[in-house]
Amino acid sequence: MDDQSPDSTAAGERIKLNVGGKLFETTVSTLRSGGADSLLSALSNRQAEEAVFIDRDPEIFSILLSLLRSNRLPSTAKRFSNQELIDEALYFGIDSQLRSALAPSRLNGIDASLFTTVNPSADGVVSDFNAIESDGSLWVPTVGRFRSTIGISAIQQQYGRI
Question: Which intervals hold domain BTB (predicted)?
Answer without folding.
Answer: 13-110
